[in-house]
Design a protein that fits this description.
The complex is a heterodimer of chains A (about 375) and B (about 550). Chain A has 2 domains: about 130 residues, Cobalamin-binding domain (Rossmann fold, 3-Layer(aba) Sandwich); about 210 residues, Rossmann fold (3-Layer(aba) Sandwich). Chain A contains 13 helices and 13 strands. In chain A, the strands form 2 sheets. Chain A has a 7-stranded parallel β-sheet with strand order 9-7-10-6-11-12-13, with helices on both faces. Chain A has a 6-stranded parallel β-sheet with strand order 5-4-3-1-2-8, sandwiched between helices. In chain A, strand 3, helix 3 and strand 4 form a beta-alpha-beta unit. In chain A, helix 2 packs across helix 3, helix 6 packs antiparallel against helix 9 and helix 7 crosses helix 13. The relative contact order of chain A is 0.12. Chain B has a 5-stranded parallel β-sheet with strand order 3-4-5-6-7, with helices on one face. A 4-stranded parallel β-sheet of chain B has the order 8-9-10-11. A two-stranded antiparallel sheet of chain B has the order 1-2. In chain B, strand 5, helix 5 and strand 6 form a beta-alpha-beta unit. Chain B has 2 domains: about 30 residues, no CATH class; about 375 residues, TIM Barrel. By secondary structure, chain B is an alpha/beta fold. Chain B is globular and about 75 Å long. Classes of the chains: A alpha/beta (about 375), B alpha/beta (about 550). At the A-B interface, helix 1 and helix 3 of A face helix 3, helix 7 and helix 17 of B. The structure holds cobalamin. Chain B: This is Methylmalonyl-CoA mutase alpha/beta chain catalytic domain-containing protein. Chain B: InterPro entries: Cbl-dep_enz_cat, MeMalonylCoA_mutase_a/b_cat, MMCoA_mutase_a_cat. Chain B: GO terms for molecular function: cobalamin binding; methylmalonyl-CoA mutase activity. Chain B: Keywords: Isomerase.
């Protein structure tokens, strides 16, 4: 099964900085060093609670969690992470970390006694960190029971998603459910993540029940390691009613990862039970048509006002196949001209079928985002 | 070249030689004199390269007043009582009381000590302040109306709320008129939080609105208060190069000036109430870095903003570099700090924090904080270097070379920021953050490869020296005390708080001055209650990686 060939795949780890701590210099340097060594690092960001860390670790199905703690309280914090992983049935996920000189050798002894695998003290080289992590986590592990058929909790679902990369799934088992699948694409910097997060915020506030899944993509560097950092800025999406998974493109061109289509099929299934599945591509070029062969119900193209000259718009192939075009960052000075040009371009390419929204996703409760949400829900 | 010296010639200590208080270059050619006066400036004169005031390390507002020490040590641990005791210890032999407050993680993030998941962090790395009552305890025994007392508070995301607590606490003790005489500064620099320190609570636009409300209120109500400390320290500590530190900090400063001007506040009203905070590390750029900042600021404020002499003055606090201090053979940190402190004073800093040798490990212990404080006394009082002369180290060819190089690099950074749409535009492109992160990674790589020499770590390391200092931690009993205190406060004010929070929301919605309202709100609401309410009203900041 898929779990066994872990050793040949990039090591997937999650890194984060604890609640009430913004010391991110060390973790960013460690992230960078590990990516260069071929790791896929899901980075959750700073000022993160134990619950957020454990939820993300389970949903992302990482082999281990690395925590960088500087503002004290590490004895409590690491222990709570270890304990909650156990409570949630994933005690196989490792826990390691560092915090320069603030974590003393005596602390390390104590932390190891309650299940922390390793603490990297001040002055540790990146080479040593890499070696030690491979030693700890590189050999594949005895994973918590993998029940491929039952995806009735995040744990099971997350493990299924890990296995589909290397395993053809049985389509009969993953019957398409009622989930609406919405694809977001567009150039880097258009604000896709913020838009999705703001969308999710409104969804959670307006709908007391129901769950959403989000599938995001980030480029792999040199076709191997990658920084998957969408979670860091999608703060409202760190919620028990949201299942989020970050994929690295692993050398595939066009916006998706090799396993994207199969993952989408699983997420949109009856068994997974989501109301909505939102998928975000990596930042794409003008020729990209990422949604061609997938189960996407609504295709959303997100642009920002600085696409350059008008002729650049004509070159964006997605313009012709999008259902919805969003012009984000309408607070920018160049927005007024952009609105006009985009509207004009749409009228030329799709015989008026396309809906255009103007948003400013960074604004709390933005009117444009609310309208877009209603459209996509309806 | 001569100048009518208002100052007595000073005497050297050892030989008793007579030295001029203000040595001037031996120039007789008029062009050279003009170049000197415009390029360097006399101490206290445009463009303030030498120093902000003609006489440093005296009370600048009034020469007849007793001396105000430039030493200002950052302190905070445990609850208000423990920190108050540390404040008394630090200032017991000083004429002036220059207090500087470090807050703990939960306070920095606008949370209460009884919030979920924060217990372990209560009072670690700073003091826990949840309510106006904690604020009263924190400054117990200090006369906040005394012109010799000044209070600095390192708080940013929740700065308006914490400042409101400070004002409310001071009024409780010293009456409503204390407003007019409050001296000190609140950091409140939200732009550098986005760029380097990561303590933003609300979306940038709302954070800026709350800040501007506070600044506007402050300049009209607290004439002696500095409502912002525009900080390069955190940018630098996050890994920026010295030039990046200077460029991002100055450009942030000019942005604030722009925003205040847009609010309709006259430049000569707000500009004298801006202050700065820089890092000083061991690298050669630091020999001149903040001198150059003073010059660029003066020119910008004079030429672009049309500010008067007082508006052109960049007043700064300097802290020695924490990141240059390492745990390996940590006692070497004493020497590093001494070197940095000396460069800070060579740059004529207005005040200075010197780190303790145990910086890599812990909130400083009494032992090392005493050494850090005495280090400053040795430099300023024991040594004659800064006692006898105003500008003994200005104008040397080496210093000038660094000044020129650094200045031109800063201007290049300005051009890049401008190209990206100014400070806010550049921020949206993650420009400052990505530049800082790249520099930080390079810095760590250089240490690991040995290219950047760190004695005791990658050079001359002594494997027998594994000595570590003992760390200062807060006991669970102290944490529990704080937790229960804030619970009791909230219980006591339950009904009043609900009403006060609604009042606050109304002001947020109708566009009134949020700070003016906060001064009332804090009477019955805790920091966490206020943060939560404001986040409900305006949203949560989405961090940038
Ligand atoms: C840089 C720094 C800052 C910068 C942070 C910038 C940023 N964006 O990260 C600034 C100036 C903003 C800052 C602010 C504060 N700081 Co500070 N800071 C430091 C400093 C100087 C260096 C830390 C660092 O990044 N080192 C560089 C890293 C790469 O090296 P390292 O720490 O040795 O880590 C190695 C290993 O441990 C390992 N590692 C570390 N983490 C991880 C994680 C993983 C997964 C792995 C595998 C490895 C690993 O990697 C490194 C490789 O060798 C330390 C003191 C010191 N000299 O260590 C204080 C220090 C950590 N800060 C401290 C404090 C108190 C604060 C503040 C709370 C002060 C205040 N009250 O306002 C604020 C809080 C800021 C916030 N938002 O949370 C205290 C903590 C004290 C305590 N715990 O008791 C310290 C120890 C200083 C002190 N003595 O007071 N700080």
């Amino acid at each position: 099964m898929g779990c066994s060939d872990l050793a040949s795949e990039p090591l997937r780890i999650l890194t984060a900085v604890p609640l009430c701590d913004g010391h991110d210099s060390a973790v960013m340097a460690v992230n960078q060093a590990l990516i260069l060594q071929g790791y896929e690092v899901v980075y959750l960001g700073y000022h993160r609670s134990v619950q957020d860390i454990v939820r993300a670790a389970i949903q992302e199905d990482v082999v281990a969690v690395g925590i960088s703690s500087y503002n004290g309280g590490h004895l409590e914090f690491f222990r709570e992470v270890v304990e909650l992983l156990e409570v949630k049935g994933r005690c196989d996920i490792g826990v390691f970390g560092g915090g320069g000189g603030t974590i003393t050798p005596a602390d390390v002894v104590l932390m190891k006694s309650y299940g922390v695998d390793e603490i990297f003290l001040a002055g540790t080289s990146f080479e040593f960190i890499d070696e030690r992590l491979r030693e700890l986590y590189g050999g594949g592990r005895d994973r918590a029971e993998c029940e491929l058929e039952i995806a009735n909790d995040d744990r099971g679902l997350a493990m299924v998603l890990s296995s589909v990369g290397s395993l053809e799934i049985d389509r009969k088992k993953w019957v398409r459910g009622s989930a609406k699948v919405i694809g977001f694409t567009g150039p880097g910097g258009a604000g896709k993540s913020t838009l999705i997060d703001e969308w999710v915020r409104g969804y959670l506030a307006d709908h007391p029940v129901g769950r959403v899944a989000i599938l995001t993509h980030d480029p792999s560097s040199m076709e191997r390691g990658g920084l998957l950092a969408d979670r860091a800025s999608m703060v409202y999406a760190q919620d028990d009613r949201v299942f989020m998974r970050s994929l690295a493109t692993r050398g595939r061109q066009g916006g998706f990862a090799p396993s994207t289509e199969v993952c989408l099929r699983v997420l949109a299934s009856v068994a997974a039970g989501f109301d909505h599945v939102l998928v975000e591509t990596v930042g794409t070029g003008q020729e990209a048509l990422p949604f061609e062969n997938s189960v996407i119900d609504t295709k959303v193209l997100v642009l920002h006002p600085e696409y350059g000259a008008r002729v650049q718009l004509q070159k964006i192939l997605m313009m012709d196949s999008a259902d919805v075009v969003v012009l984000n960052k309408t607070d920018w000075a160049s927005a007024a001209r952009a609105v006009e040009e985009v509207a004009h371009q749409i009228s030329l390419s799709n015989e008026g079928e396309v809906r255009l929204y103007q948003t400013q996703a960074s604004e709390h409760g933005n009117v444009g985002v609310t309208e877009l949400r209603k459209d996509l829900l309806g | 070249m001569e100048r009518d010296s208002e100052f007595d010639p000073a005497g050297g200590d050892a030989t008793g030689i007579s030295l001029p208080r203000l040595p001037l270059p031996e120039l007789d050619e008029p062009g050279a004199i003009a170049r000197y006066l415009c390029g360097e400036g006399l101490p206290g004169e445009f463009p303030f390269l030498s120093s902000a005031y003609p006489e440093m390390y005296l009370d600048p507002e009034d020469g007849s007043k007793p001396q105000e020490e430039p030493t200002r040590l950052f302190a905070g641990l445990g609850t208000a009582e423990e920190t108050n005791a540390r404040f008394h210890l630090l200032t017991k032999s000083q004429k002036s009381h220059r207090l500087s407050t470090a807050f703990d993680g939960p306070t920095l993030y606008g949370m209460d000590s009884d919030a979920d998941g924060v217990f372990g962090k209560i009072g670690e790395g700073g003091v826990a302040v949840d309510t106006v009552e904690d604020m009263e305890r924190l400054f117990d025994g200090f006369d906040l109306s005394d012109p010799q007392t000044s209070v600095s508070m390192t708080i940013n995301g929740p700065a308006p709320t914490i400042m409101a607590m400070y004002v409310a606490a001071a009024k409780r003790r010293f009456g409503p008129n204390v407003e007019k005489v409050l001296r000190g500064t609140v950091q409140a620099d939200i732009l550098k939080e986005v760029q380097g320190q990561n303590e933003v609570l609300f979306p940038v636009a709302s954070s800026l609105r709350f800040l501007l409300d506070m600044m506007e209120y402050s300049v009209s109500h607290f004439p002696k208060w500095y409502p912002i400390s525009i900080s390069g320290y955190h940018i630098s500590q996050a890994g920026a190069t010295p030039v990046q530190q200077a460029a991002y900090t100055l450009s942030n400063g000019f942005s604030y000036a722009d925003m205040m001007r847009e609010q309709g506040v006259a430049v000569d009203v707000f500009a004298p109430r801006l202050s700065f905070f820089f890092d000083c590390g061991v690298d050669v750029e630091f020999i001149a870095l903040s001198r150059v900042c003073r010059k660029i600021w003066a020119i910008g404020m004079r030429e672009v903003f049309g500010g008067d002499n007082r508006s052109q003055l960049l007043k700064m606090h300097t802290q020695t570099s924490g990141r240059s201090l390492v745990s390996a053979e940590f006692k070497n940190n004493l020497t590093r700090t001494a070197l940095e402190m000396m460069m800070a004073y060579m740059n004529a800093t207005n005040s200075c924090h010197s780190n303790s040798a145990d910086e890599p490990f812990t909130t400083p212990s009494e032992e090392y904080v005493k050494l850090a404080s005495h280090g400053q006394s040795i430099l300023l009082e024991e040594s004659g270097l800064f006692r006898h002369m105003m500008n003994g180290l200005s104008g040397s060819p080496g210093m000038k070379a660094v000044e020129r190089a650094v200045e031109s690099e800063i201007l290049k950074e300005f051009a890049e920021i401008e190209r990206l749409g100014g400070v806010l535009g550049a921020m949206e492109h993650r420009y400052q953050r990505s530049q800082i992160q790249a520099a930080s990674y390079r810095y760590e790589q250089q240490i690991l490869s040995g290219e950047r020499r760190v004695i005791g770590l990658n050079r001359y390391a002594d494997s027998n020296d594994a000595e570590l200092p003992s760390v200062v931690r807060v006991t669970d009993a102290v944490k529990l005390k704080q937790l229960e205190r804030v619970r009791a406060f909230k219980m006591k004010n339950k009904e009043a708080a609900a009403e006060a929070l609604d009042g606050l929301s109304q002001v947020v919605e109708n566009g009134g001055n949020v700070f003016a309202q906060l001064v009332e709100t804090v009477e019955v609401c805790s920091l966490g209650q206020i943060t939560e309410r404001l986040q409900r009203d305006v949203g949560i900041f989405r961090p940038m990686i």
